[in-house]
Amino acid sequence: MPRRLLRDGALVADEWRTADEWRAAGDGAAAEGGPLMLGLSEFRAERERWLARAGRLGVILAPADDEQELVPDLARLALVAAEFPTVSEGRGYTQGRLLRERWGFAGELRARGAIRRDHVFLLARCGFNSFELPESEFDGAVAALRTFSAAYQASNDRGLRSALRHRWL
């Protein structure tokens, strides 16, 4: 069964794979054309090779990574993922918000790692539109996106909120 994730308020199959997943499967040909996520250090090491490949490309940012390093390539990336290694790690919120607001990233912005339904609404307010969650968290996460109909703070979730409002209201 394919891995699922919450994207734009809907549960969908996750077609993206990491380089380690492609290597473990021994499917080098698929890695050349399929949607591929790389850690920032791996992307940097062979940047030209990765940007020249045929399939969609994404980069995973660790908490200590500087999202500004991706600015020259943002138009060529289909996905940027922020890694949350623990529930108390919050630097990904800032990375996501800066990618959307300062650098104008319009692709898929994904939260991965120690993400739970309690984080989804706040992550969406920072501009995240997809979330890797444990299977047991999906129903609660979908509900979390509908919890509040208005907010006082400025945010970067206009597109997501409009899509959700249209779907559920």
Describe this structure in words.
The protein has 169 residues and is α/β, with parallel strands linked by helices. 37% of the residues lie in helices and 20% in strands. Strands 2-1-8-7-6-5-4-3 form an eight-stranded mixed β-sheet. The longest helix is centred in the middle third of the chain and has 11 residues, at 91-101. It is globular.
Give a quick precis of the structure:
By secondary structure, the chain is an alpha/beta fold.
List keywords for this structure.
8 helices, 8-stranded mixed β-sheet, 169 residues, alpha/beta, disordered C terminus, globular, 20% strand
Q: Strand fraction band?
A: 15-25%
Strand tally: 8
**Which range best describes the helical content: under 10%, 10-25%, 25-40%, 40-55%, 55-70% or over 70%?**
25-40%
Gyration radius, rounded: 16 Å
Distance between the termini: 31 Å
SSE ordering: EEEHHEHHEEHEHEHH
Average pLDDT rating: 86
Strand arrangement, major sheet: 2-1-8-7-6-5-4-3
Poorly predicted runs: 161-169
SSE order and pairing:
Elements: E1 4-7, E2 10-13, E3 17-18, H1 19-25, H2 28-33, E4 36-39, H3 40-45, H4 47-52, E5 57-61, E6 79-84, H5 91-101, E7 108-113, H6 117-125, E8 130-131, H7 138-144, H8 158-168
Parallel strand pairs: 3-4, 4-5, 5-6, 6-7, 7-8
Antiparallel strand pairs: 1-2, 1-8
Helix pairs in contact: 6-7
